[in-house]
Design a protein that fits this description.
4-stranded antiparallel sheet, transport, about 20% strand, Rossmann fold, 6-stranded mixed sheet, about 280 residues, ATP-binding, alpha/beta
């Protein structure tokens, strides 16, 4: 039986300008898994994430954390935000301290940890994200990729159960993207639940354990990467295309150049199929 760490039940939310951002959303995020919410800009991904952290409150419906209905009093929200950390799409909206060490230490100190405990948490987070050498660097002098890593370290230092990442690879070059995904795999291997939003079908297909498709504030489908991207009707409904790996795999099978029904998830898996054909 699946264990859900975060749930949305029939959630509706509308912005002040009348935009219906969420329209009866119901879904569950499985504990310990890598889940991707896939959808175009305006699908409601970021709005949903802000509900999971208690920043937004549903007009109707409810959010649950570890099976418990989210309440909006100070004590419950403090517990929720300690356990559900968000890394925002633009790190400049998240970073505000003078240097990297001060930036990452803010969260643990705000939770009431001692200076010794905070020091340990901060250095552990910096080591895991590979930014120890940036400890004394002013945050405004960091590269965009470095800022992304500091933003992730910010959340790691709080030691949450769930880490939510809104478009974590947006505006990153291919090498930085690969490094970021490798870092996220390492974090997930430690038992953390990861929830990531993107509109990149290639990233979603190669990285996720589970994919949720959103369009115009609604869930239009979900499943494993293989089942989601094998469903042409679902992809059309969501306005998505198949990942390039599956497009090439399909053409190669049509020509009889490779056999079998194993869908490759990565470039290397596709090359292996070609090599042994």
């Amino acid at each position: 039986m699946k264990e859900y760490i975060l749930e949305a039940h029939n959630v509706y939310f509308q912005y002040e300008d009348g935009t219906e951002a969420l329209r009866g959303i119901s879904l569950g995020i499985e504990k310990g898994k890598k889940t991707v919410v896939l959808g175009h800009n305006g699908a409601g991904k970021s709005t949903l994430f802000l509900h999971f952290n208690g920043i937004y409150r549903p007009e109707r419906g409810e959010i649950r954390f570890a099976g418990e209905k989210v309440l909006y009093g100070k004590s419950f929200l403090k517990k929720l935000r300690k356990n559900v950390g968000i890394v925002f799409q633009d790190p400049d909206t998240q970073l505000f301290s003078a240097n990297v060490f001060q930036e990452i230490s803010f969260g643990p100190l705000n939770l009431g940890l001692s200076k010794k405990e905070t020091y340990e948490k901060v250095f552990q987070a910096m080591e895991e994200t590979g930014i120890t050498h940036l400890k004394d660097r002013p945050t405004h002098l960091l590269s965009y990729g470095e800022k992304k890593r500091v933003a992730i370290a910010d959340v790691l230092a709080m030691d949450p159960e769930v880490i939510i990442l809104d478009e974590p690879t947006a505006w990153l070059d291919p090498i930085s993207t690969r490094q970021t995904l490798k870092l996220l795999d390492k974090i997930n291997a430690q038992g953390k639940t990861l929830l990531l939003s993107t509109h990149d079908v290639d990233l979603a297909y190669s990285w996720a354990d589970h994919i949720i498709l959103m369009k115009e504030g609604e869930v239009v489908g979900e499943g494993t990467p293989e089942t989601v991207f094998a469903d042409e009707n679902l992809l059309q409904k969501a306005g998505m295309v198949r990942p390039w790996i599956l497009e090439i795999y399909g053409k190669l099978r049509e020509k009889g150049w490779i056999n079998g029904t194993h869908f490759p998830r990565t470039k290397q898996e596709l090359l292996d199929l070609i090599e042994f054909a």
